[in-house]
Amino acid sequence: MKEILRKAMTTEGYQDLRYEDVTTTTIQYTGRELKEVSVARKSGGHARALVNGGWGSYSFTTPDAARTTIEKCLGAARLVGGRSKSPLVLAKAPVVEDVIRVAPKVDPRQIPLDQKKALAEEYNSLVLANPAVQTTVTTYTEIAARKFFANNEGTYIDQEQLLAVLTIRIMTKEGNLVQRVSVALGGSPDYSLLEGHQALVEEKTRQAAALLKAEPVKAGRYTVILDPGAAGVFIHEAFGHLSEADGLADNPKLQKTMTLGSEFGLPILSVVDDPSWEGHPGSYVYDEEGVKGARTYLIREGKLVGRLHSRETAGKLGEEVTGNARAKDYSFAPVVRMSNIFIDKGETPFDEMVASVDSGLYLVGAAGGQTSGEAFTFGTQLGYKIENGKITGMVRDAVLSGNLFETLRNIVAVGNDLEMNRSGGCGKAGQILVGSGHGAPHIKILNMTIGGK
Amino acid sequence: MEKLLKLALGRAEQAEVYVRTESSQSARFTNGVLKGISGSDTIGVQLRVIVDGRLGVATATSFEDREDLVKRAIESTRYGEPVKFRFPNAPAPNVKSFDPKVAEMSQEELVARGESVISRLSKLLPGVSIDGGIGNSVKTVKILNSSGFSGEYSATGFSLGVYTKSDKGFGQTGDWDESGKVFDFDDARIEEIAAKHRAADNRVTVPTGKYTVVFTPMAMWSLLLRLVAGVSGDAIAKSTSPIKEKLGEKIFDSRITVLDDPLMEYGLRSCAFDDEGVASRTKAIVENGVLKSFMFDLATAAEAGFEPTGNGFKRALFADDVEVKVSPQPTNFVLKPGDLSTEEIIRDIKEGIVVDSVMGGHTGNIVAGEFSLNIGSGFLVKDGKLVGKVMDAMVAGNIYDVFNQVLAIGSESRATRAVFYGMGYSPAVSFKDLVVACK
After folding, report:
1. Is the pLDDT of residue A153 over 70?
2. Can you give the pTM of this predicted structure?
3. pLDDT, mean of residues B188-208
4. In this prediction, does ipTM exceed 0.85?
5. Given A248, A333, A378, which is nearest B360 (Cβ)?
6. Min CA distance, B282 vs chain A (Å)?
């Protein structure tokens, strides 16, 4: 592969080529029914060329098309580059030759399909045993990829990536009221992390059943405590996307808003992105530009101190590369994406945090979110009222929404109990990425807008 | 394809070969300047077989190893879902879904068309940062099955979007459209975008309360998506749909008619047959407020005891890939226009909110019809005029309530897109007394 990719490139401008073989194993139960057992194999490549500041990029299917695809990219890049006002200089990245192999404690690729199916079935049956459960969607997903990367600077990387995750969506129903709670297990290359979570799954099922008796949350402004699941999605949606530098590289006004050193929160708040933290959904060694992923502080003690880069955005802003150029698969050009983003551990114990709230909400688990830059929104799976420092009745259907800058400043307590998610999906630029990690300790936020009826 | 089908039928009772080739390219503009051209050429092959009444599937990105593909498909029937359907064989209609002008558009023309829109908007909004994207695509789907069906259609796609930024550098407003044929934003539409941008310069908050709320076509997907979920054969077969027992009953205001219309000329989801080879036909989902039809693929139709409706697609809300399992999905999901222009609808509002884009439309209890949406881009209306951009507000309700609170339905139908993928067409619709939560 090394020779095929290298021979396809020339010395004009910057060029790179990726080629991937991806095997995706899916086992899915819907209710009692086994809906899907599939092993899909895909392979394909992606080529890019940068000439005079203009990009051309195309994907292709077989390795022998690498050469002609590079030519197509060069044609497009010359057309774009001819109109560009400022030549673009990519940030320097070390030239490397490397081979990365994944060796988890228990390798899911070595586990027979029957055993994976039995595990999914066991969890699924456990949920269905609760009479309030209407249906389930229990899915085992395993993505095993071998990715090749070469550029015309001399870098060549052959790396494996592996992810096994089991998600269970629990739907309960009474009359016309349907409630959902989901739980995810694994989210790493290690199959053994999927096993032994029966108690957790039963607890989540009980919560989904209890939601049928919960009252709908009333719209308004609340002091809220978010659990690590909800807080992780919050930091991903509300702040993470804004720290992706492709949004501001060509946007001087946003650069000003995001001046490094600005106060973004109280000194208790620190936010980190780290692909090199092994065993999480967003972990990897090299990104899709052959740059090694590294730990990047985004907010340290309340001050904005960093952002996430591709070689292009780092070059434009005169900052160091961070290894955050990611692509869903070979159909797409890499864009700047978070890896594993989290709010760093603080000092407040959870009990103390709850005791400090006279009237508010404790919200648990995330149900998807979205951002438009400064505004964000996301749903939560379930919640409780907090009255006079105590967690009381259950509430349902809470959706949070707010302005990023205000909300970050309104984080007044950060817990001492950091937890990472086990599965995450994230959509940007038409690419929906499975490998997205996020996490947080419990956090307390003042004045949060909650939508409801 | 014939060889693969023959090979599979040596070992299976029924078989189907599906091939999709796609070729697309797009040009993107950042801060008014052409930034890059990208594209992709992909092929996906999927073999589905039925052995002992169980379905097996195998996917590949070439025909290179037929033997392996058949072996994997046969193996997977061991765990396959028991199915009661036969692959169909009915003649597919002729659908105008392919525009050679889209298919043959050069990079240069794509760039020139994009530049024209951006420069015209830029003239109306000097100093404002504008991003944009323009793209063309061609997709060909071929299906061959053991019941004798052999079909092929090609569909083109053309899309155009522009987005303006605020003085802080965040998204302020935008517009987007998609079609099977070439189109342009005319000067009236450019002026409309500029007017929205200017109105959004004034940022306002509103007290929490009940308002008349207008959803523009760009925002309507979020409500229609909940109807899609409610009439999906999956929700019917699983009994999670709140309207499962309501066929023939009035569920919405009698002015509401919704079609699933794959036969529309050059629609963004027009097609001759679905991804299982079921011939396309147009059906009323809701007609004058009365629930008329659900949307089924082969499996859910057999399970629920209905006829397949030609809605089986290898697609999901966030995926459009050959390897995605077939499920009931809309084609062109169309809310039929009424008789008032959007301007006229707004003119009659004393105090209300125009919702032009939403966030969070893909979250919450969708199948139950519930929505709780962040108003991404919304305008406060006072005495019939847009007076400012509503900040930090959410609108919530349930479609089975709010489609009975309809005040007016607009006359201009436009494409509407569910987060990433186009899902149909809608005019603007205004609703009475929706709950808006703000500061």
Report:
1. yes
2. 0.84
3. 92
4. no
5. A378
6. 29
